[in-house]
Amino acid sequence: MTMFSSRNWREYPQRYRMEAVKFKKSGLTFFPPRDIDPTNGDVECEKVNLPDIGKILTFTVVRIAPAQWGDVGPYGIAIVELADGTRLMGQMTDVDVNEIKIGMEVRVEFRRVQQEGHHGVLSYGYKFVPKWW
Amino acid sequence: MRTVCVVGVGMSKWGEVWKRSFRQLFVDAARNAIEESGVDHIDSLYVGCMSGGLFAGQEHVGAIMADYLGMPGIPAMRVESACASGGMSFRAALLDVGSGMSDIVMAAGVEKMTDIDGDEATAALATAADQEYEVFHGATFPGLYAMMAQAHMAKHGTTRQMLTAVSVKNHHNGSMNPVAQYPFKLKPETVENSVMVADPLRILDCSPITDGAAAVIVCTEEIAKKLGRPYLKVLGSGLATDTIQLAQRDDMTTIKSATLASERALKMAGKKISDIQCVEVHDCFTIAELMVLESVGLFEPGKAGMATVAGETALDGRIPVNPSGGLKSKGHPVGATGIAQIIEIYKQLTGQAENGRQITSSPTIGMTQNMGGSGASSVVHILEVAS
Taking CB atoms and an 8 Å cutoff, what residues of chain B touch A106? Predict the structure, then answer.
C-alpha cells in the first residue's frame, strides 16, 4: 500500500515510544491508544509507556513476503504479551526464524520497519529480539 | 419481519477470467439469476464488493452494475465488509424485503482480482486487517491465519494431517462443481509438499485469487409461490463484529464473531445448531474451516480436526461441510463468496447440486457462515427448503 508521510508521522508516539493510554475508571491500558474505553465508555485517560519485555503468544514465519520486505524475507512475525499484559504484533529480528517458539522471551527494540511508498521514506518502529541478557 | 425467500440463483464463470471485465462478470451472474427465477423485474439491487477501487480502479459499484444490467434508475448500492461483503449484501436484501420496502430484490457479489499482479492483490486484501498495527509490521493474510493455526496447534494439538484433510475434502467436493476454479482432487502428499507460505500454512492450505460474481433473487413468499419454482425460506440472519486486531483478542484459537453471529441467526430461526444438516463455511485457509466449525458449535473446541480426518464433514458424513468445494477449490472472489455460499445451500436443499456432489441424505435446513478479514466480522444465514 502507498503510505504517506503525515500518516507515518501521526503514529510516531506509538512506533517510536510505545505510548499507550490508561483509562481512569477501569485502570485498563490499551495499545494502540483508543479514545473510548470499550468496557465502560469512559473517555478520561492518561498517557503511559509500555514495558519493553514480554513473551511470544503466537507467531509465524512469512516465507512469501510482500514486495516491501522482499529483501528481508523470510521473516518472523509475532504477537507478544508485554510484562503489563498488553499485546502487540511486530516483526522478529536478530533471530534464526526456525528457532522462534511460543513462550520465547523477547525484548522490544527500535528498528527500521519498512520503506514507505514510492519515495522510499524510511519508517521506523518496534521489533522484537530474543532475550540475550 | 415478513417471510423472505430465495427463488433463483446465478453465477458467472469463476477463475482467471481474462475475457470478462468487472462489470461483465456481474452481468453474467445477474442474468442467470433473473432467468432462473422467472422474475420480470427487480425493485432494488445490492452488490457485495470488497474493493472495486483497489482491484479494478472502479468505485461507485451499485450504479455501474445497475446501469450495465440494463436497469439504470433502480435503487442500487454496494455493500462492504471485506471478504464478508457477499453475505452482508444478502442480509441487506433480506432487510429490504423483510421490512416491506421492496418485494423483489437482487443480492449479488462480485470481485475482479486478476487485473492486478499478485503483490498488488495481496496488498488490496491486506486492507481488511489493521493497516497501522498489523500490515505495517509485515502481516499478510496467510500470516494472520498462520498465527491462529500456531496457537490452535499449541492449545489443542491440531496437526498437519488435520489441515491436509480439510484441503483434500474440499477439493474432492469441488472436483464435482462445474463453476469451481480448481475442480481437481488433491492427494494428501501434494498438499504436504506444497510450498510453505507462512508456517504452518502451505499454498494448498490457502484459497486462491479469483475473478467471479454470484447473484440470487430474494422476494416475498407470495411471489415465490407464484413463480412456481423451488425456493428456500430464510429462517435466520446473524451479524457480529470483533476487534480488528488479532492481538487484541482474548482467545486467538476461536472466531468470536462467528460464535455471536451463529447464536443470533439460530435464535431468530428458533433452531438449535444440531438442527443444521449442511453448511458452507468460510475456509479462506484450512485452519479457518476448523476454527469456524468449533466457533459455531458444530464441534467442541479442538475436535473439528479429528472429525474431518474421520470423514464426519464429508458429503456422506454426519454434517457435510463445504459441499461446493469451499473457497479452497471453488475460488474466492472476495465480494462474491458469501452469495455463492447461499447458492450452494440452495442447490443442496432443492436437490439440484450437479455431478454427483448432491448430499444423499436430502438435507432440508442449511447454514452459511461468511467472514471478513481475520474474523473481525462474520455473517451467518439459516435457510430451509419450502415444502
Answer: none
Name which of A6, A14, A77 to mutate to probe chain B: the one with the most chain B Cβ atoms within 10 A of its Cβ: A77
Tell me the C-alpha distance between A113 and A97, whole Å. Answer: 17
| Bond into A32 cis (ω within 30) | yes
At the top level of CATH, the class of B4-117+209-227 is: alpha beta
Q: Which residue of B has its CA nearest to A30?
A: B248
Among 3.40.47.10, 2.60.40.10, 3.40.50.10140, 1.20.1250.20, name the CATH number for the domain at B128-206+235-330+340-385: 3.40.47.10
Burial class (CB within 10 angstroms; exposed 0-12, middle 13-18, buried 19+) of B75:
middle
Chain B contact present for A63, CB below 8 A: yes
Of the candidates B143, B118, B138, the one whose C-alpha atom is nearest the C-alpha of residue B287 is B143
Q: Which regions of chain A does DSSP assign to beta strands (E)?
A: 19-23, 29-30, 45-49, 53-62, 75-82, 87-91, 105-116, 121-130
pLDDT digits (tens, 9 = 90+) for A5-26: 788 889 999 999 999 999 999 9
Domain ranges, ordered by start, for chain B = 4-117+209-227, 128-206+235-330+340-385
Nearest residue to B286 via CA among B207, B357, B340, B339: B207
Residue B299: per-residue pLDDT: 98
Residue A121 is predicted with a pLDDT of 81
In B98-150, which ranges are E strands? Answer: 104-111
Is pLDDT at B257 greater than 60 in this prediction?
Answer: yes
Cα–Cα distance between B171 and B46 in angstroms, integer? 30
C-alpha cell at B142: 496467510
